[in-house]
Write a structure and sequence with these properties.
single chain, about 70 residues, alpha+beta, Alpha-Beta Plaits
Length: about 70
């Protein structure tokens, strides 16, 4: 399991945060925080590629990933 910060530049409002939260919950992710101010998602996951694919699927592609 790794901890990551995902940069999601298309996130712009509280509705975006809700959509991203719902999508991550559908994947079974529990340890994450969606941060509108920095347009990032801080997440602890074993399935980074699945997370990135899901966010792209709902039109919030990940621009960059930083391991923390």
């Amino acid at each position: 399991m790794g901890k990551f910060i995902l940069k999601v530049p298309d996130m712009s409002c509280k509705h975006c945060v809700m959509r991203i939260t719902k999508a991550l919950e559908e994947l079974g992710e529990k340890n994450f925080e969606v941060k509108l101010e920095s347009k990032t998602v801080e997440i602890e996951t074993e399935n980074l590629e699945n997370v990135k694919a899901k966010l792209s699927e709902i039109d919030y592609p990940v621009e960059s990933v930083e391991s923390i």
